[in-house]
Amino acid sequence: MTPISSTANGSAVGVEKKSATAPKVRFRDPQIEMAHGAGGKASRRLIEGLFMPLLCGDSTEPLADAAHVNVGGGRVAITADSFVVKPLRFPGGSIGELAVNGAVNDLAVSGARAEALVTTFVIESGLATETLQREIEAMANAARIAGVRIVGGDTKVVEHGKADGMYISTTGIGSLIPGIEVNPASVRRGDKVLLSGPIGDHGITILLARGELDIECELSSDTRSVLPFVEALAQSAAGAIRWMRDPTRGGVATSLNELARDCRLGVILHEDAIPIRDAVRGACELLGLDSLHIANEGQFLAVIAPEAADVALEAIHRVPGGAEARIIGEIQEQPSGSVLVTTQYGGTRIIDMLVGDPLPRIC
Amino acid sequence: MKYVDEFRKPELINKTAEEIRRLADPNRHYRLMEVCGGHTHAIYRFGLKDVLPSNIELIHGPGCPVCVLPMGRIDDGLSIAAKGDVIFAAFGDMMRVPGTNGSPLEHKARGMDVRIVYSPSDAIKLAKQNPDKHVMFFAIGFETTAPSTALTLQRARKEHLHNFSVFCNHVTIIPAIRAILDSPDMRLDGFIGPGHVSTVIGCRPYEWIARNEHKPIVVSGFEPLDMLQSIVMLLRQLRAGEAKVENQYKRVVPWEGNPAALRAMADVFQLRPYFEWRGMGFISQSALKLREEYAEWDAESRFEVPGIRVTDPKAAQCGEVLKGVLKPAKCKLFGNECTPEHPVGALMVSSEGSCAAYYNYEHRKTSQLTSISVTA
User: A163 and A271: one domain?
Assistant: First the structure.
């Protein structure tokens, strides 16, 4: 998710700031389209041009995965995320698992441990109880693994033919992990970019699970809590963590472009260092997609001060499921505000955020 | 990954790049046109310009089927789909291409039933799943995709599938190359020939380019090593003063093409007397339409087609870019009025379009990149 506030200085959304003049809405698109929900440029335009001016006043803080706010003298992290996925179940996971892990991960990459979740179900009438039960069980299981309680929720039922079976929305509250202070403004030239594991598993799994493509392969979603990795980083290199993000919709490219823009530096990626499974590469080659734009649900990116990068990487490697983590690049002055991919033979290319969803290239 | 990794090996690429530097005469400027949009995409995707000497200039050709489609055709197709009970099915490539009143995706947001398909046969599947609706497949592509449209139409006819039609925008590559060579402001030294098209038509149809125009042409694959090898082959010919057709992509392209695919095309399609190409005007015998026997599945005979003609915005220079006369970034609209978010022309939409490829992969690199040290 991309909530409309930030972690940096702790102002809650539009609560503590008041603008003297009327907020300036800059969103000019005449209608909302799928692209506005795809996590790319169109989403960002919507959030920055319509939601933020009206809800956050003149806040200029960068967008982040969760907001840190003062509550009763203490600081907590809060996030919200909603899940609209077709099919509801897919190899390696289901909507219920995503709904828990998504919120847990948004909190984790803001430097917080999820403490409690509340969840909203929007259910299509006619949904088999068995299907619903399975998803509730999946949520309970994911919550147990992530060490978070589900403390409440809400249920709405909509007419048959709406909501694709069910939509789930989750709100999470978390306690801050001591020592972690993530902020794109703290990113410096020479910092290293760390990625927790192979990219694109989730996005390609969903694409194939829809059954529209006659491609079969052994691939499953990477949905999982990334909290254990964040905690390992906190223990090994807390003060050296500059920035973290879970690269969901829009993939690694989108998260890193947001970083580049926010810190006004260049992110240089080494293509051959980026872990990726052959099945994902193959599907991307066939469909003309760039794996850096494909969604992940169980990976995280971190920018680490160079002197601590090796220690941080070793710490991640020791966490179960972290063996494939790599340093995939570094921060440089140029190209400022952009992400540049380099190849072993010296070719380079800029990789930008997409406007909307990645579209296959056939003809 | 087989058939991919061996063509991206750094040591082979570096060796081939070295060979190119050795063969290229430093006192000469080489202008080589890659005809196919897939090649344009690969050049930027793999950063090939970075490994080529600066006196080898790659000129982007007209081989992006989405880009050469005039806006009026999109409007025509969408106007049929606006009639209700029609499902507009097309490849993902088409989805963001602007029509006068928006792209297929924007029409979908307003309620039109627009579906992305991965092959024309998926459109048949859709028609069977939706018997009370009509599925119109908006067909685009050169000879690469035309055979699969042809086979799909043969199947629709055989199975008496009546709720399916094709709005045919298939174009042919040879007349486009001819138009480029006829263009007085175009000076080219040779061609990187289209790989996918040639799997169907083979290499023979290019022979006139070598014979009559005295330009070498090398049919090329799409991996970095393929393209560099093709450049080596072109440079060798130029050095020897030769002009012939060569096939670098032998692992995929048979010299005689694919007779079964050509037969299917001949059964279903006939040449249109002329067809409008975006920015290049009307080119005779450059596009396909369905034969009379397939009229029932021809959206243009079955539905009323308004025949909309839309002129490009005056400031847009899509035509010059398509013909390779103008570099994308030199267009007055590039990066200002025309961006991937708000495209004026299809060249800025399709990932094979040279403007989109240049915008996405290159332009910030050249405008801002001053001191990158690559430490892979």
Answer: no
Among the partner residues B91, B365, B376, nearest to A335 by beta-carbon distance:
B365
Residues A235 and A91 in one domain: no
Contact B91 A363 (CB under 8 A): yes
pLDDT confidence of residue A8: 37
The verdict on residue A4 lying in a domain is: no
* A344 and A211 part of one domain: yes
Residues of B with Cβ-Cβ distance to A340 under 8 angstroms: 365, 369, 372
Selected residue of B361, B362, B367 to mutate for chain A interface (largest A Cβ count, 10 A)? B361
pLDDT in tens, B308-346: 888 877 788 888 888 888 889 899 999 888 988 888 888
Question: Order of strands across the sheet with A166-176?
Answer: A67-71, A74-83, A166-176, A112-124, A149-158
Q: What residues in A contact B171, CB-CB < 8 Å? A: none
- Measured CA to CA, the distance from residue B78 to residue B97 in angstroms comes to 12
Q: What was the pLDDT predicted at B223?
A: 94
Same-domain status, A112 and A193: no
Residue B184, chain A, CB below 8 Å: the answer is no
Q: Could you tell me the domains of chain B?
A: 5-65+173-247 (3.40.50.11750), 71-170+272-302 (3.40.50.11740), 318-368 (no CATH)
Note the pTM of the prediction, 2 decimals.
0.89
Q: Which of residues 335-354 of B touch A (CB under 8 A)?
A: 340-341, 350-352
ipTM: 0.86
**A164 shares its domain with A196:** no
Reading phi first (left if > 0) and then psi (alpha if -120 to 50, else beta), residue A132 is in alpha
CATH number for position A76: 3.30.1330.10
Query: Do A90 and A111 belong together in one domain?
Result: yes
The CA distance from B292 to the nearest CA of chain A, in Å, is 25
CATH value at residue A237: 3.90.650.10
Residue ending a domain, choose from A128, A160, A176: A176
Give Cβ neighbours of residue B244 (< 8 Å, ≥ 6 apart).
B210, B216, B237
Query: Cβ of B369 and A351 within 8 Å?
Result: no
DSSP label at residue A164: T
Q: Report the number of distinct structural domains present in chain A.
A: 2
Q: Residue B341 and residue A288: Cβ atoms within 8 Å? A: no
Work out whether strand B190-193 and strand B217-219 pair parallel, antiparallel, or are unpaired. parallel
Tell me, yes or no, whether A206 and A344 share the same domain: yes
Range of the domain at A159: 66-176
**Residues in chain A closer than 8 A to B226 (CB atoms):** none
Q: Which two tokens stand for residue A185?
A: 């403004």
Please indicate, yes or no, if residue A248 is contained in any of the structural domains. Answer: yes
Q: What's the pLDDT tens digit per position in B142-201? A: 999 999 999 999 999 999 999 999 999 999 999 999 998 988 777 899 999 999 999 999
Domain boundary among A131, A153, A176: A176
Burial (CB count <10 Å: 0-12, 13-18, 19+), residue B58: buried
- List CB contacts (< 8 A) between B140 and chain A: 363
Shortest alpha-carbon distance between residue A75 and chain B (Å): 39
Mean pLDDT across A11-39: 69
Q: Is B369 on the interface with A (CB under 8 A)?
A: yes
Distance CA A105, CA A1 (A): 10
> What are B225's two structure tokens?
């090593």
A296-351 pLDDT tens trace: 999 999 999 999 999 999 999 999 999 999 999 999 999 999 999 998 888 999 99
Residue A350 with chain B: CB contacts under 8 Å: 360-365
Least confident span in A184-188, A359-363, B280-284: A359-363
Contact state of A363 with B118 under an 8 Å Cβ cutoff: no
Q: Do B365 and A351 touch (CB under 8 A)?
A: no
